[in-house]
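[agent] plan:
  1. take the single chain provided in the ticket
  2. run structure prediction with default settings
  3. attach structure tokens to the ticket
  4. add a short note for the reviewer (M.T.)
[agent] executing step 1
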Amino acid sequence: MRPSSLIRTALATAALVLAILVTRVEHFGTAFSAPDATLAVLFLAGMWIRRAWLFPTLLGVAALASVLIAYAWFSLLSMMIADYTTISSAFDGRIWFLHIATLVICVGAALIAIWNAWLTWRQKRHWVARGWSGLLVIACLTTLWVALTFKLIAFNVNY
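[agent] step 2 finished; step 3 output follows
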């Protein structure tokens, strides 16, 4: 592999990771923040960049996004419990944003994990890789189930 090709791939990877992280600057988002780019970046990376190490890197970024959305929910709920006067329509925009972000992140992570497992089993990789991809699917589906069960994915703001 030529050094220029390696540098181009590294720059593309850095740009894609930066695009994901830039859209996650604010926990709650505003009318001026950029829309979530995680699924678009992962889709484009899978289509255009064929390096073996890129897909696990982006999968790790998606996992980090899942942790950040859990932190955002914890922060919002602890803020609302600490001061009951904050439970009002003033928080509706933040709650709507978290509902939509949770939907995108949890469903996106589950689909990516299933795709990863399908590729791993289809290519007949080592049993450790197969087992890990299976555990990743279970973890992502469990996260999706928890989000649905506790109504973190909903289309209303009833409290």
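[agent] step 4 note for reviewer: The mean pLDDT is 77.
[agent] ticket updated
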